[in-house]
Specification:
The protein is α/β, with parallel strands linked by helices. It folds into four domains: 15-34 and 509-560, 2-Layer Sandwich (Alpha-Beta Plaits); 38-128 and 461-474 and 485-501, Orthogonal Bundle (Fumarate Reductase Iron-sulfur Protein, Chain B, domain 2); 139-233 and 380-441, FAD/NAD(P)-binding domain; 237-378, FAD/NAD(P)-binding domain. The chain is 28% helix and 16% strand. It has helices at 38-42, 49-57, 66-78, 84-90, 94-97, 110-123, 147-157, 175-178, 187-198, 216-222, 251-259, 277-288, 308-316, 422-441, 477-480, 494-501, 515-519, 547-551, and strands at residues 30-32, 139-143, 162-166, 203-205, 225-228, 234-235, 269-273, 292-296, 320-322, 325-333, 336-350, 356-369, 372-375, 379-380, 410-412, 525-526, 536-537, 557-559. It has a five-stranded parallel β-sheet with strand order 4-3-2-5-15, sandwiched between helices. It has a four-stranded parallel β-sheet with strand order 9-8-7-13, covered by helices on one side. A three-stranded antiparallel β-sheet has the order 10-11-12, with no helix packed on it. The radius of gyration is 28 Å and the shape is globular.
């Protein structure tokens, strides 16, 4: 009887290999499309967060030393902002709130990486780079040496413009200097990053108040463009009878006087009214002055606009939080307040900000003893000399590029436009500088071609290993209270910053995981010989099976 021979299976071709001859063809083909990561999408400064983080994360694989990687990351960061060490300390990091890794195990601690990059730049005395050797004939005036004004000055100077910054105070820094305590932002860090900007040739004129010492119109006549970023140094009042007392200080006034080295006797029982960063900073300063300190806030902790870490640190330092309460009056002896009259609140319907509106609870009055009261409910700029820029009761109105809607040749940003974050002012300064440059060159701004936003529904989270988020080391509370200038958050070790950077999922851009190459059965993906170079597609082999796109963890590949 004849024996039927079995056919040998041939792996790598034919039906058993899943070849293009046996599988259904698709007209779709893979395309590498860079996506916008949510961290950068929400960053007010427009920082290329994914780029500087992955530069550090992938350094060892690409044969770079840590110092090389941090140097490159510093250059990436400072292309959009000259303040990595500053913002690494004071930014509330909205990038982390929107990090895709929140849906896996917690956001990448971008703020700690940012600080490590900034401190590296200061330690190594890295210099900011210019964009052109050309020296432009036009001169630009910047009013205000805060984060917005200095950001604008930096971006213009690196483009070859002569820039003069006019500052009303005796030192540059604006609210960074006069509104943020040194335990959060040491003076040498701020001075170091400002010094790098001045090294580009920016001229600084302190103790010159535009609007009083020199008129805005005089600047407009002498300079080809003016950028106004005057800061909000006037604290708003409670509008409660009796607050005109000698032991009542607005939050910004209090912090300003402390920053100037003034000794303020607040007594042993301070009440701070408000829930923002100024309120938290004032309360923590009072604890360092030895006072029992209570923050009175009319909503709950969930609605407090202050940075979460700052609230937690204030509580660790002994600051008491009295929620759902508001001031209604004071008891006084002579011209000094002895206690605050308060009323309990409850949350009602949402207001225009989206937060629930606080409503007084009838019959819930109570009192708190006080040797000093610090209202820190809000603040505003002083617009003396800038009235031509102000529209009605509003602040300075500008278009999308920061140009004044009322006066030709004037741009504005920072708190002069609206109260916002330091990083917001930095971004507005950069945007205005770009607009001024285009205006003086007679060019139009190119249309924004933002990449599509990448979210986790277009990613493979199961590819990524779960790793605990790192935290910035801190001084213990008892050590913090020993000095007014003792920095609370300690230096981030380089290896910790590297490990944290390696948690980045590189959302929307290839990080050489090899998945597309490994899962392609048609040999349609070509692996590059050199690391750090993108994979390519051999479309003549592709059947459109979508496997490369389906397996790409970061969502870099689309089928079109």
């Amino acid at each position: 009887m004849a024996i039927k021979k079995k056919k040998k299976k041939r792996f790598g071709s034919g039906a058993f290999s899943g070849s293009s001859k046996s599988r259904e063809q698709s007209p779709l083909r893979p395309h590498q499309i860079e996506k916008m990561p949510p961290c950068r999408h929400v960053c007010p400064s427009g920082n290329r967060i994914r780029d500087f983080v992955t530069t550090i994360a992938q350094a060892e694989r690409l044969g770079k030393t840590p110092d090389q990687a941090f140097g490159e990351a510093w250059e990436i960061y400072t292309d959009t902002s000259p303040f990595p060490a500053v913002c690494g300390r004071v930014c509330p990091h909205p990038c982390e709130d929107n990090c895709n890794r929140n849906e896996l195990d917690g956001a990448v601690n971008i703020n700690s990486i940012e600080r490590a990059i900034g401190d590296f730049g200061l330690e190594k005395q890295l210099k900011l780079k210019t964009l052109s050797d050309e020296k432009r004939p036009e001169k630009i005036a910047v009013v205000g040496a805060g984060p917005g004004g200095l950001s604008c000055a930096y971006q213009l100077a690196r483009r070859g413009y002569g820039v003069t910054v006019f500052e009303a105070a005796e030192k540059p820094g604006g609210m960074l200097l006069w509104g943020i305590p040194r335990y959060r932002l040491p003076a040498d860090v701020l001075e170091g990053e400002i010094g790098k900007i001045l090294d580009l040739g920016v001229e600084l004129k302190c103790n010159v108040r535009v609007g009083t010492d020199v008129a805005l119109d005089d600047l407009r006549a002498e300079y080809q463009a003016v950028f106004v970023s005057i800061g909000a140094h006037q604290g708003l009042k409670l509008r409660v009878e009796g607050e005109e007392a000698e032991n009542v200080f607005s939050g910004v006034e209090f912090l300003n006087r402390i920053a100037h080295g003034e000794k303020i006797d607040v007594g042993d029982n301070v009440i701070v009214v408000g829930g923002g960063d100024t309120a938290i900073d004032a309360a923590r300063i009072c604890r360092r002055l030895g006072a029992t300190t209570t923050i009175l806030y009319r909503r709950t902790i969930e609605e407090m606009p202050a940075i979460d870490d700052e609230i937690e640190e204030a509580q660790e330092e002994g600051v008491k939080l009295e929620y759902l309460a508001a001031p209604v009056g004071f008891n006084k002896e002579g011209n000094r307040i002895t206690s605050m009259k308060c009323i309990r609140m409850k949350l009602g319907d949402p207001d225009e900000s989206g937060r629930r509106r606080p409503v007084p609870v009838e019959g819930s009055e109570f009192e708190i003893p006080a040797t000093a009261v610090i209202p820190a409910i809000s603040q505003a700029p002083g617009f003396t000399g800038f009235q031509t820029l102000v529209e009605g009761k509003d602040w300075i109105k500008v278009d999308a590029d920061g140009a004044s809607t009322k006066v030709e040749g004037v741009w504005a940003g920072g708190d002069a436009v609206s109260l916002a974050l330091v990083t917001t002012a930095v971004g507005q300064g950069r945007r205005a500088a770009e607009s001024i440059d285009l205006k003086l060159r007679g060019e139009e701004r190119p249309k924004d071609t933002d990449s599509p936003l990448i979210k986790t529904d277009h990613m493979r989270l199961d590819h990524y290993e779960k790793k605990d988020r790192s935290h910035i080391p801190k001084l213990p509370p008892d050590e913090r209270l020993k000095g007014m200038d003792t920095e609370v958050n300690l230096a981030v070790p380089q290896q910790q910053a590297i490990a944290e950077a390696q948690r980045c999922m590189s959302c929307g851009y290839c990080f050489d995981c090899e998945k597309c190459w490994l899962f392609c059965q048609d040999q349609a993906v070509a692996k590059p010989m050199q690391k750090g170079v993108l994979y390519t597609f051999k479309l003549e082999n592709c059947t459109g099976c979508k496997k490369c796109a389906e397996e790409c963890p970061c969502g870099f590949i689309d089928m079109l």
